[in-house]
Design a protein that fits this description.
Number of strands of chain B: 0
Helix content of chain B: over 70%
Distance between the termini of chain A: 29 Å
CATH topology of one domain in chain A: Rossmann fold
Order of helices and strands of chain B: HHHHHHHHHHHHH
Largest interface: A-B, 28 and 24 residues
CATH superfamily of one domain in chain A: P-loop containing nucleotide triphosphate hydrolases
Low-confidence stretches of chain A: 325-331
Order of helices and strands of chain A: EEEHEEHEHHHEHEHEEHEHEEHEHHH
Number of domains of chain B: 1
Low-confidence stretches of chain B: none
Largest sheet of chain A: 6 strands, mixed
Structural class of chain A: alpha/beta
Helix content of chain A: 25-40%
Mean pLDDT of chain B: 87
Oligomer: heterodimer
Radius of gyration of chain B: 19 Å
CATH class of one domain in chain A: Alpha Beta
Largest sheet of chain B: none
Strand content of chain A: 25-35%
Mean pLDDT of chain A: 84
Structural class of chain B: mainly alpha
CATH architecture of one domain in chain A: 3-Layer(aba) Sandwich
Strand content of chain B: under 5%
Number of strands of chain A: 14
Number of helices of chain A: 13
Chain lengths: 331, 233
């Protein structure tokens, strides 16, 4: 549905986007992740035809964005970082205008009502946009993007400025829309991307440094099978006991985090799975295992490590533990 | 294009801009008409010619926020990512401002009807003057739009536009003290007021018509380029 190859954008001497290539299949929900100024919004603005590109090619549904801008724009619903709202208009007037602007062919009133219900702004339809709160304005902008039911939705930080309840609502809406739309969304809120996207593209300094599922990324980077066990026991005895479990490299006590229990950080040898062995040893001693968690790092940490330590795709791949050279040799 | 025209036209009446402009037009033309009528010389084309003074002030008000405000509020993102051409955006806005401007001449139609019901005169001088005033307005509005597309501030746009309007309309009076004859000739040829005044005489002059139409087209084109350039910067 979306094909980007060798995309670069230069602002004067500053290279905002540097040789970015990726493609998004129909029905995929992809998250753009990156620090401020990484080039996320610039890429989105190019995809939607707002900005021109310096080099490369962007195709939406087979149409080149530079050659057939109108065909491309017909297929995209765009919610920019700052929703493009005419604040002197009423919500319904604004959506009416967007409907006409996009030359939508559906029955007008029914379609606008449907969209307003979808983003839950139908009760403010007759209010002036300038009197609405940030959260409502964001939703009006979202409604504008949904008008005409475009195949592709490009959402630049769709939940910025919303309260936690609204964030969950919008997130659920995106998840629902993801069933029959192709969606690209950008965010600083990493848990959000984890919640709604099946694929993450991490962008740093205008380059793609990682492109994978959130699970693979956090698995890869953590590359860590250590576990944290919470056991009702006396600290000293259990420390000795756990050390004798097969495959355990080291055990450290993390101290008491819940009354009467002790937390242990258990590191395995050679990354083997030791959860079953630990459980059996603990229960065979008649102690109660309250919880057993993998010491997995969150996507947030993946993101921080990648953007701080890797400045290009190859470095990031190495950090993530992909062995590209080996693969190439095998092939 | 039609959607943009409709929105802009409504926006003029949602803010005081259109009312201020139309009040100025109506008050001035009404005052002049009552004066001429009382003096027994009710030539409506003369009133249209005199309205030039109002027009100089009015077009910057009409065009000051047309482009600059979109840029400041980032609403241009909605327009430029919609399936409309940039020319469609520019022309829709131009047409909206032009229609508000044209409404300013509504009372002159009534004046003309009154006069024609009293004395037997030809309608042609009136129509020709009205045509000239509309052409002058189109040219000034397109220039104003271009200025508005250069800045994010509607105030800067209005002031700049006002100064430029004075210069291009009254440049011939400004250079009258210059003794170098070719400068005077050149400026007089360029000055809008001379071309416009020709519409006050009934001599149908094709060059004057083309003069205004080509200026309008040129500045509409420049506005389109100005919007496009922003995509490339």
């Amino acid at each position: 549905m979306i094909e980007v190859s060798g995309l670069s954008k230069r602002y004067g001497n500053h290279l905002a986007v540097n040789d970015v290539s990726f493609s998004v299949e129909k029905g995929e929900v992809v998250g753009f992740l990156g620090p401020n100024g990484a080039g996320k919004s610039t890429i989105m603005n190019i995809l939607t035809g707002y900005l021109s590109l310096t080099q490369g090619e962007v195709k939406i549904d087979g149409f080149d964005v530079m050659e057939y801008p109108e065909e491309v724009k017909k297929r995209i619903g765009y919610l920019p970082e700052i929703p493009p709202l005419y604040i002197d208009m009423k919500v319904s007037e604004y959506l009416d205008f967007i409907f006409d602007l996009k030359k939508v062919k559906f029955p007008k009133k029914a379609h606008i009502n449907e969209v307003m219900k979808l983003v839950k702004i139908d009760h403010v339809a007759n209010r002036l946009i300038k009197n609405l709160s940030k959260g409502y304005r964001q939703r009006v902008g979202f409604a504008g993007a949904l008008i005409g039911n475009p195949d592709v939705l490009i959402l630049d930080e769709p939940t910025v400025g919303l309260d936690p309840k609204q964030i969950i609502e919008i997130r659920n809406l995106i998840a629902r829309l993801g069933k029959n739309h192709t969606i690209i969304l950008s965010s600083h809120i990493l848990s959000e991307i984890q919640a709604v996207c099946k694929r993450v593209i991490i962008i740093n300094k205008g380059q793609i440094i990682a492109d994978d599922t959130p699970e693979v990324l956090s698995d890869r980077l953590s590359n860590d099978k250590s576990i944290v066990a919470r056991i009702i026991c006396s600290e000293k005895d259990m420390l000795e006991t756990l050390k004798t479990v097969k495959g355990v490299k080291s055990v450290t006590s993390l101290g008491c985090k819940e009354p009467n229990s002790v937390d242990f950080l258990i590191e395995p040898q050679d990354n083997c799975d030791i959860r079953a062995d630990v459980f059996e040893r603990v229960s065979s001693r008649g102690k109660t295992l309250l919880s057993l968690q993998s010491n997995k790092i969150s996507l947030e940490q993946v993101f921080l490590r990648l953007t701080e330590e890797a400045s290009n795709y190859e470095e990031a791949r190495r950090l993530l533990g992909f062995n590209d050279e080996e693969k190439e040799e095998n092939e | 294009m039609l959607a943009i025209f409709k929105r802009e036209f409504k926006a003029f009446f949602a803010t005081p801009v259109a009312y201020i402009i139309l009040t100025a037009f109506y008050l001035f033309s009404g005052w002049r008409f009552s004066l001429y009528y009382g003096a027994g010389y009710p030539a409506v084309e003369g009133i249209i010619m005199e309205l030039a003074i109002i027009i100089v002030f009015v077009t910057p008000l009409l065009t000051m926020r047309l482009m600059s405000e979109e840029r400041r509020q980032k609403t241009d993102q909605a327009l430029l990512t919609a399936p409309v051409t940039i020319f469609g955006i520019v022309f829709g806005k131009f047409l909206a401002a032009f229609c508000v401007y044209a409404l300013g001449f509504l009372p002159t139609i009534i004046f003309q009807i009154i006069v024609m019901s009293l004395v037997e005169i030809s309608i042609l001088p009136y129509l020709y003057a009205l045509f000239g005033a509309l052409l002058l307005g189109a040219a000034l509005i397109s220039i104003g739009m271009f200025i508005s597309s250069l800045t994010e501030s509607s105030v800067v746009s209005a002031i700049l536009n006002f100064v430029i309007n004075i210069l291009i309309i009254y440049s011939s009076s400004l250079v009258s003290s210059v003794s170098i004859s070719w400068i005077v000739t050149a400026v007089e040829k360029i000055a809008f007021v001379n071309a416009f005044n020709n519409f006050g005489t009934t001599v149908f002059s094709i060059p004057d018509i083309f003069y205004f139409i080509s200026i309008t087209a040129a500045f509409l084109f420049l506005s389109v380029r100005s919007l496009e350039k922003r995509r490339w910067s």
